[in-house]
Amino acid sequence: MENYIISLRGIKVQFDDLPVLKGLDLDIRDEEFITLLGPSGCGKTTTLRIMAGFAEASEGDVFFEGVRINDLPPHKRNVNTIFQKYALFPHLNVYQNVEFGLKIKKIPAAERKVKVKEMLELVGLGGFEARDVNLLSGGQQQRVAIARALVNQPRVLLLDEPLGALDLKLRKEMQTELKRIQQSTGITFIYVTHDQEEALTMSDRVVVMKDGEILQIGTPQDIYNEPVNAFVADFIGESNIVPGVMRRDFLVEFANNAFRCVDKGFEPDQLVDVVIRPEDLRIVAADEAPLTGVVSSVTFKGVHYEMMVESAGHDWMVHSTQASEVGEFIGLTMSPYDIHIMERMEDDSLDWIEGESSASMEGGHAE
Amino acid sequence: MRNKVLSAPYLFWMVLFTVVPLILVAYYALTGADGGFTLKNVSDVRQFSGVIFRSVWLAVIATLICLVMAYPLAYSMSRLRPQMQRVALLMVMLPMWINFLLRTYAWMTLLENTGLINQLLGLLGIGPLQLINTQGAVVLGMVYNYVPFMILPLYSVMTKIDQGLIHAAQDLGSNTLGVFVNVVLPLSMPGITTGITMVFVPAVSTFAISRMLGGGQNLMIGDLIELQFLGTSYNPNLGSAISMVLMVLVLLLMSAMNQYADEEKEGMII
Questions:
Q1: In a domain, A233, yes or no
Q2: For the segment B152-176, what is each residue's pLDDT rounded down to a tens digit?
Q3: Torsions phi, psi of A69, nearest 5?
């Protein structure tokens, strides 16, 4: 049996008759970095609050190392939280903020001093002891919040979109920092975010959630390469999603063409969603390609060019290091391994994707 | 510069009705009936030390009672839903819409020897108790009249305490008492000092309440000053001297408290 530190069983939560979590089952391994990922309102923050003890489930159980802790108040749980807005105590300085939990536990003053100093060094805030927390920058406040939680050596650290308020460069730095801290301390990190890139960068495992349910749990590679449905495919990275028909094993028809693929096990002529990553589409000469179309836009993205190609009634997003001209007539091709076939989702899910794709994935969803 | 222009009407008002009268008080306090400089009035204030002591004592008791009653109320008010908060706030303000004298007269009829409370007690076979014309009645009158001035500043700072901070304290291992002592209390300190000031200052200089509910035996400084201007023993110079001593006393007490509050703020968590 695996070594699970926290287990959720059939967790249901409702706010004013509105279901927020619909019977959630989740096992968290000791010492892993696991991320709950999903759009705003998917229930990921509520899941975290259930584990911290700030929210109550109307049904279901929470286990900590196999012991049911449903009724254990937050201050008795061996977890610490880093809050979305840091929640530093404004009447205390940096040292006193970090010291807070140790003081509650009645750790002797001399020992506290050593631990706080160590922890501030770890987060790169050595020498900041006497600073007023209200005058620190966002990144520094974030570090204080991390130190204040970690100094208690919790078994589990819960992080609720902790980098949301930081600018891009700082966010990248802190991602590396958090991963480093997690690996050096061996504390289980449960991380909540709506930023798929953040989730893929840091996590050992990613839990993709939507509408109070878990859609997929897996390593970042699993989630990216083998998304279970078009929603996950679209949420994790950019995707071209088109309707298709599975003619027979290893043969799918879409965009008025039949393509060889590596999927099997569908009913003959079953309706499916076909997902192709933009970086998996290759631009070739028009006369030797199954798909042809006109380039409608070219955007420079730094490492690659992002091009939109109109073909067979769809807008295809293509990532390539070489730019084509706008208006150029080109061909598109792909290898059978890069065609991902998924069972067709219900209509409302597809609506969500339509709206989301046109709004672009960048920019994020406010929680 | 614009700010100066905007504050001009009030500055004018303040100079005319605060600064000038203060100078007049000082002038009268330091001159005799003949208009010459003297310290006699100020030294005469000593004979009323009993009254002054009683005033400060009763005001301190009334302020403490207000604080003890208002603090938990203000805290629970600040945690209500916004709509309920407005209702609660209205309930607190409601008595202030009724004239102060009327409210105090109402207490007289309640507390009288043949008043409503004693009548009810009589039905139970108790009393009649001496309720009116006691120090207790004076304190009751002050608490009744001034408690909203304690609730409002407390409520105002407590609504600003982020629920996230309370969660953070719980998360770091604080139980309910710990959250209160380490987070809520220090963050509400500014409200406490404001509330104490806003209750203590009017309470220590109370006059009508003490006469109406305390009878003749429980005079306070305010009554004493009033007597010097309106009574048979007309002596505006002595009245001014008492006012000045009262003012200095209040200033000293308030600055001592603020000093203490500042130190408290800089102190470590308990």
A1: no
A2: 999 999 999 998 999 999 999 999 9
A3: -125, 20
